[in-house]
Amino acid sequence: MEKAFREAIEDIKSEIVLKEVAERLERRDVEGAIAALHIDPAAFRPLSEAIRTAFNSGGLLVVKNMPRLSDPAGGRVVFRWDVRNQRAEQIILEAPSTMITHVTEDTKQMARERIEAGQAKGQGPNTIALDIAGRVNRVTGRREGGLLGITSVENARTALLSGDVEGMKHYLTLTRRDKRFDRQVAKAIREDKPLPADTVQKITGRLADRYVQLGAQTIARTETQSSVHAAKHLSAGTGPRRS
After folding, report:
1. Residues 64-87: pLDDT tens digits?
2. Buried b vs exposed e over 134-158: b needs ≥16 C-beta within 10 Å?
3. pTM of the model
4. Nearest to 235 by CA among 53, 55, 51
5. In this structure, are residues 134 and 153 in contact, taking their beta carbons and an 8 Å threshold?
6. Residue of higher predicted confidence among 146 and 120
7. What is the pLDDT of residues 114-134, one digit of tens each?
Protein backbone atom coordinates (compact mmCIF):
# COMPACT_ATOMS: atom_id res chain seq x y z
CA MET A 1 0.00 0.00 0.00
CA GLU A 2 2.82 2.40 0.87
CA LYS A 3 4.46 1.79 -2.51
CA ALA A 4 1.12 2.21 -4.32
CA PHE A 5 0.44 5.54 -2.62
CA ARG A 6 3.91 6.92 -3.41
CA GLU A 7 3.58 5.82 -7.02
CA ALA A 8 0.18 7.52 -7.27
CA ILE A 9 1.64 10.81 -6.04
CA GLU A 10 4.58 10.47 -8.44
CA ASP A 11 2.17 9.80 -11.31
CA ILE A 12 0.14 12.91 -10.51
CA LYS A 13 3.27 15.07 -10.35
CA SER A 14 4.72 13.65 -13.57
CA GLU A 15 1.51 14.36 -15.49
CA ILE A 16 1.22 17.99 -14.41
CA VAL A 17 1.66 20.45 -17.29
CA LEU A 18 3.10 23.52 -15.60
CA LYS A 19 2.07 25.86 -18.39
CA GLU A 20 -1.60 24.96 -17.98
CA VAL A 21 -1.51 25.44 -14.22
CA ALA A 22 0.39 28.73 -14.49
CA GLU A 23 -2.03 30.09 -17.13
CA ARG A 24 -5.00 29.49 -14.86
CA LEU A 25 -3.20 31.02 -11.90
CA GLU A 26 -2.40 34.04 -14.05
CA ARG A 27 -6.17 34.48 -14.43
CA ARG A 28 -6.61 33.98 -10.65
CA ASP A 29 -8.63 30.86 -11.43
CA VAL A 30 -7.77 28.71 -8.41
CA GLU A 31 -10.30 25.97 -9.14
CA GLY A 32 -9.19 25.88 -12.77
CA ALA A 33 -5.60 25.42 -11.61
CA ILE A 34 -6.70 22.59 -9.30
CA ALA A 35 -8.52 20.93 -12.21
CA ALA A 36 -5.36 21.25 -14.35
CA LEU A 37 -3.47 19.18 -11.77
CA HIS A 38 -5.63 16.18 -12.72
CA ILE A 39 -5.89 14.89 -9.16
CA ASP A 40 -8.58 12.29 -9.67
CA PRO A 41 -9.48 8.89 -8.16
CA ALA A 42 -8.09 7.02 -11.18
CA ALA A 43 -4.56 7.97 -10.11
CA PHE A 44 -5.07 6.04 -6.86
CA ARG A 45 -6.42 2.82 -8.41
CA PRO A 46 -3.24 0.86 -7.58
CA LEU A 47 -3.90 1.76 -3.94
CA SER A 48 -7.41 0.32 -4.10
CA GLU A 49 -5.98 -2.89 -5.55
CA ALA A 50 -3.52 -3.07 -2.66
CA ILE A 51 -6.41 -2.72 -0.21
CA ARG A 52 -8.28 -5.55 -1.91
CA THR A 53 -5.19 -7.73 -1.67
CA ALA A 54 -4.84 -7.00 2.05
CA PHE A 55 -8.52 -7.81 2.61
CA ASN A 56 -8.25 -11.12 0.80
CA SER A 57 -5.01 -11.98 2.63
CA GLY A 58 -6.70 -11.33 5.97
CA GLY A 59 -9.46 -13.81 5.21
CA LEU A 60 -7.04 -16.45 3.97
CA LEU A 61 -4.89 -15.98 7.08
CA VAL A 62 -7.79 -16.64 9.44
CA VAL A 63 -8.85 -19.82 7.64
CA LYS A 64 -5.27 -21.07 7.40
CA ASN A 65 -4.72 -20.71 11.16
CA MET A 66 -8.09 -21.98 12.26
CA PRO A 67 -7.86 -25.03 14.56
CA ARG A 68 -9.25 -28.39 13.49
CA LEU A 69 -12.92 -28.50 14.50
CA SER A 70 -15.51 -31.26 14.70
CA ASP A 71 -19.28 -31.25 15.07
CA PRO A 72 -21.06 -33.21 17.87
CA ALA A 73 -21.27 -36.27 15.60
CA GLY A 74 -17.52 -36.31 15.06
CA GLY A 75 -17.60 -34.98 11.50
CA ARG A 76 -14.94 -32.50 10.51
CA VAL A 77 -16.04 -28.87 10.16
CA VAL A 78 -14.38 -27.14 7.20
CA PHE A 79 -14.07 -23.37 6.85
CA ARG A 80 -13.18 -21.79 3.52
CA TRP A 81 -12.59 -18.14 2.75
CA ASP A 82 -14.61 -16.92 -0.21
CA VAL A 83 -13.64 -13.45 -1.34
CA ARG A 84 -16.62 -13.54 -3.72
CA ASN A 85 -18.99 -13.81 -0.78
CA GLN A 86 -21.68 -11.13 -1.12
CA ARG A 87 -20.65 -9.25 2.03
CA ALA A 88 -16.96 -9.57 1.18
CA GLU A 89 -17.57 -8.11 -2.28
CA GLN A 90 -19.54 -5.25 -0.75
CA ILE A 91 -16.67 -4.40 1.62
CA ILE A 92 -14.11 -4.65 -1.19
CA LEU A 93 -16.13 -2.22 -3.30
CA GLU A 94 -16.98 0.27 -0.57
CA ALA A 95 -13.83 0.51 1.58
CA PRO A 96 -11.29 1.43 -1.15
CA SER A 97 -13.76 3.79 -2.82
CA THR A 98 -14.39 5.73 0.39
CA MET A 99 -10.70 5.92 1.28
CA ILE A 100 -9.67 7.06 -2.22
CA THR A 101 -12.34 9.76 -2.22
CA HIS A 102 -10.90 11.12 1.03
CA VAL A 103 -7.30 10.95 -0.25
CA THR A 104 -8.25 12.67 -3.52
CA GLU A 105 -10.09 15.51 -1.79
CA ASP A 106 -7.33 15.92 0.81
CA THR A 107 -4.71 16.17 -1.94
CA LYS A 108 -6.77 18.79 -3.78
CA GLN A 109 -7.18 20.76 -0.57
CA MET A 110 -3.44 20.66 0.10
CA ALA A 111 -2.78 22.02 -3.39
CA ARG A 112 -5.48 24.67 -2.92
CA GLU A 113 -3.88 25.80 0.35
CA ARG A 114 -0.47 26.03 -1.35
CA ILE A 115 -1.93 28.22 -4.12
CA GLU A 116 -3.66 30.53 -1.65
CA ALA A 117 -0.53 30.79 0.50
CA GLY A 118 1.59 31.60 -2.56
CA GLN A 119 -0.82 34.25 -3.79
CA ALA A 120 -0.96 35.81 -0.32
CA LYS A 121 2.84 36.12 -0.41
CA GLY A 122 2.75 37.70 -3.86
CA GLN A 123 4.45 34.78 -5.59
CA GLY A 124 4.12 34.46 -9.36
CA PRO A 125 2.10 31.73 -11.12
CA ASN A 126 5.20 29.83 -12.28
CA THR A 127 6.71 29.74 -8.79
CA ILE A 128 3.45 28.49 -7.28
CA ALA A 129 3.05 25.87 -10.01
CA LEU A 130 6.61 24.62 -9.41
CA ASP A 131 6.06 24.50 -5.66
CA ILE A 132 3.03 22.27 -6.25
CA ALA A 133 4.51 20.03 -8.94
CA GLY A 134 8.05 19.93 -7.58
CA ARG A 135 11.24 20.57 -9.49
CA VAL A 136 12.88 18.12 -11.86
CA ASN A 137 16.03 16.46 -10.58
CA ARG A 138 18.41 16.60 -13.53
CA VAL A 139 20.06 13.35 -12.47
CA THR A 140 16.93 11.21 -12.03
CA GLY A 141 14.62 13.12 -14.37
CA ARG A 142 11.88 12.93 -11.71
CA ARG A 143 10.14 15.71 -9.87
CA GLU A 144 11.07 16.10 -6.22
CA GLY A 145 9.13 17.85 -3.46
CA GLY A 146 6.01 19.79 -4.27
CA LEU A 147 2.31 18.99 -4.42
CA LEU A 148 1.60 18.67 -0.71
CA GLY A 149 1.02 22.06 0.89
CA ILE A 150 1.82 20.75 4.35
CA THR A 151 1.92 23.42 7.04
CA SER A 152 5.32 22.32 8.34
CA VAL A 153 6.82 22.59 4.85
CA GLU A 154 5.30 26.02 4.21
CA ASN A 155 6.43 27.34 7.59
CA ALA A 156 9.95 26.02 7.01
CA ARG A 157 10.07 27.57 3.53
CA THR A 158 9.00 30.97 4.87
CA ALA A 159 11.44 30.89 7.80
CA LEU A 160 14.44 29.78 5.76
CA LEU A 161 13.86 32.37 3.03
CA SER A 162 13.24 35.23 5.44
CA GLY A 163 15.93 34.42 7.98
CA ASP A 164 13.40 34.03 10.80
CA VAL A 165 15.62 32.64 13.56
CA GLU A 166 12.81 31.13 15.64
CA GLY A 167 11.29 29.56 12.55
CA MET A 168 14.63 28.08 11.53
CA LYS A 169 15.14 26.72 15.05
CA HIS A 170 11.73 25.09 14.82
CA TYR A 171 12.71 23.52 11.48
CA LEU A 172 15.61 21.81 13.25
CA THR A 173 13.08 20.06 15.54
CA LEU A 174 11.17 18.43 12.65
CA THR A 175 11.75 14.70 12.70
CA ARG A 176 11.18 14.40 8.95
CA ARG A 177 13.87 16.91 7.99
CA ASP A 178 16.98 15.89 6.03
CA LYS A 179 19.70 16.31 8.65
CA ARG A 180 22.37 16.78 5.99
CA PHE A 181 21.24 20.41 5.78
CA ASP A 182 21.38 21.02 9.54
CA ARG A 183 24.84 22.56 9.45
CA GLN A 184 23.79 25.14 6.86
CA VAL A 185 20.65 26.02 8.79
CA ALA A 186 22.58 26.31 12.06
CA LYS A 187 25.08 28.64 10.38
CA ALA A 188 22.22 30.83 9.09
CA ILE A 189 20.80 30.99 12.61
CA ARG A 190 24.16 32.05 14.08
CA GLU A 191 24.59 34.72 11.42
CA ASP A 192 20.92 35.76 11.56
CA LYS A 193 20.70 35.48 7.77
CA PRO A 194 18.32 33.76 5.31
CA LEU A 195 19.47 30.83 3.23
CA PRO A 196 19.86 31.05 -0.57
CA ALA A 197 16.66 30.27 -2.50
CA ASP A 198 18.16 27.26 -4.27
CA THR A 199 19.19 25.75 -0.93
CA VAL A 200 15.71 26.34 0.49
CA GLN A 201 14.22 24.56 -2.52
CA LYS A 202 16.37 21.53 -1.83
CA ILE A 203 15.59 21.54 1.90
CA THR A 204 11.81 21.91 1.52
CA GLY A 205 11.75 19.53 -1.43
CA ARG A 206 13.29 16.79 0.72
CA LEU A 207 10.94 17.67 3.58
CA ALA A 208 7.88 17.43 1.33
CA ASP A 209 9.04 14.08 -0.07
CA ARG A 210 9.41 12.71 3.43
CA TYR A 211 5.93 13.88 4.37
CA VAL A 212 4.61 12.06 1.31
CA GLN A 213 6.41 8.98 2.61
CA LEU A 214 4.88 9.54 6.05
CA GLY A 215 1.44 9.82 4.51
CA ALA A 216 2.04 6.62 2.58
CA GLN A 217 3.17 4.78 5.70
CA THR A 218 0.18 6.03 7.68
CA ILE A 219 -2.30 4.97 5.02
CA ALA A 220 -0.57 1.62 4.61
CA ARG A 221 -0.65 0.94 8.33
CA THR A 222 -4.24 2.01 9.00
CA GLU A 223 -5.76 0.57 5.83
CA THR A 224 -3.90 -2.73 6.16
CA GLN A 225 -5.12 -3.11 9.73
CA SER A 226 -8.66 -2.14 8.76
CA SER A 227 -8.77 -4.49 5.76
CA VAL A 228 -7.25 -7.46 7.57
CA HIS A 229 -9.46 -6.99 10.63
CA ALA A 230 -12.59 -6.72 8.47
CA ALA A 231 -11.64 -9.87 6.59
CA LYS A 232 -10.86 -11.72 9.83
CA HIS A 233 -14.22 -10.76 11.27
CA LEU A 234 -16.07 -11.79 8.13
CA SER A 235 -14.17 -15.07 7.69
CA ALA A 236 -14.61 -16.02 11.36
CA GLY A 237 -18.33 -15.55 10.91
CA THR A 238 -18.55 -17.74 7.80
CA GLY A 239 -20.84 -20.71 8.30
CA PRO A 240 -19.27 -24.16 8.59
CA ARG A 241 -19.38 -26.90 5.99
CA ARG A 242 -19.36 -30.52 7.08
CA SER A 243 -16.99 -32.87 5.30
Report:
1. 777 777 778 877 777 767 666 677
2. beeeeeeeebbbbbbbbebbbbbbe
3. 0.57
4. 55
5. no
6. 120
7. 888 888 888 899 988 888 887
